[in-house]
Design a protein that fits this description.
The structure is a homodimer of 155-residue chains. With 155 residues, chain A is α+β, with helices and mostly antiparallel strands. Chain A has helices at residues 12-18, 25-35, 43-50, 56-69, 141-146; strands spanning 41-42, 72-76, 82-86, 100-105, 111-117, 128-139. In chain A, the strands form 2 sheets. A 3-stranded antiparallel sheet of chain A has the order 1-3-2. A 3-stranded mixed sheet of chain A has the order 5-4-6. Chain A binds a DNA duplex (30 and 30 nucleotides) through helix 2 and helix 4.
Chain lengths: 155, 155
DNA sequence: TACTAAATGCAATACATTTGCAAAAACTCG
DNA sequence: CGAGTTTTTGCAAATGTATTGCATTTAGTA
């Protein structure tokens, strides 16, 4: 059960209008579900939650359009599965400001968007970086609390 | 054709022995092919090159075992496909020192292992990072040279 | 309210990866 | 060196994630 303090307050209807997207039941539901938690949610998890209301293909299409518009950002986990989280207000179709650090818990597999800003990297001559993706792997706060005496058991 | 200076000199037979792995034709071929270039190679590319000599499933198994042993490291590209590169000598089964920056070219899709060391990140309270993965996306040296006057065409 | 364009659902397909199992190859010990 | 044991390989089938084509439905609008 998500902590209320984690809840990102968004207005799906307004967000859709701002981005020139039609208002549909499915699109609103996806936004509602993703906004429940700041922790990124994977496509399979979303499908598990919404699969009875929304067709799998529709879900993929909505997620893609949201990413294109800069509403969601996509983080690949270590298995190559897409995870999604609400973008900060600064994101737009033209440019994703997805420059914060992600934390991928190797125990519960959740992906957190940390407040830590990704450091600027100096590229070698000839390489022009446009965006940077920084993900730390380890044990998250919750998993550290749950098994303080036996955290080695899982790894 | 790979530049000779890119060629990582490894001894497949010795490497297998060091890691307690049986010496098979397939395992040697995979090491040879990956050592040809410092640029990471994707599973599909490897399969294209080796598919007539090695079964697809065997290739997957070899790549997994090499990653487990710390011989190769795996980098996920933006499509969630696995890419592999030779680990530095410091890597072992117990711990991957995969702390350099990767550069994923959005034009040719190649993944480079840069000499740039990934910066240390300060984690929030309760989060314990074990490894960090930093990938920069942009246009690589070669692609910048190839189309200096019209680099916007592909993106 | 009827029209038009866009979004949805369904079926089929593509692609990466894994699993089960029998056949083949690699170490090893007498 | 050759039989025996174990590991690895190849093939077939299955799983999981994501995309495409097309007919139907729905949203926004005139």
């Amino acid at each position: 059960m998500p902590n209320l303090s984690d809840m990102t307050t968004i207005n799906p209807t307004a967000l859709l209008k701002e981005n020139g997207l039609k208002h549909t039941r499915q699109r609103v539901r996806v936004l509602e579900e993703i906004a429940l938690d700041t922790v990124a949610i994977s496509q399979p998890e979303l499908e598990k939650k919404l699969g009875k209301e929304i067709d799998r293909v529709t879900l993929y299409r909505i997620l893609n359009i949201y990413q294109d518009k800069g509403i969601l950002h996509r983080i690949m986990d270590m298995n190559g599965t897409a995870n999604y989280a609400i973008c900060s207000a600064a994101c737009s179709e033209d440019h994703h400001h997805d420059d914060h650090v992600h934390f991928n818990c190797t125990s519960c597999l959740k992906i957190y968007c940390l407040e830590v800003k990704a450091p600027h990297l100096k590229m070698p001559h000839g390489f022009k970086a446009v965006t940077t993706n920084t993900t730390a792997y380890g044990i998250c706060e919750k998993c550290n609390q749950q098994e303080p005496e036996d955290s080695a058991a899982l790894q």
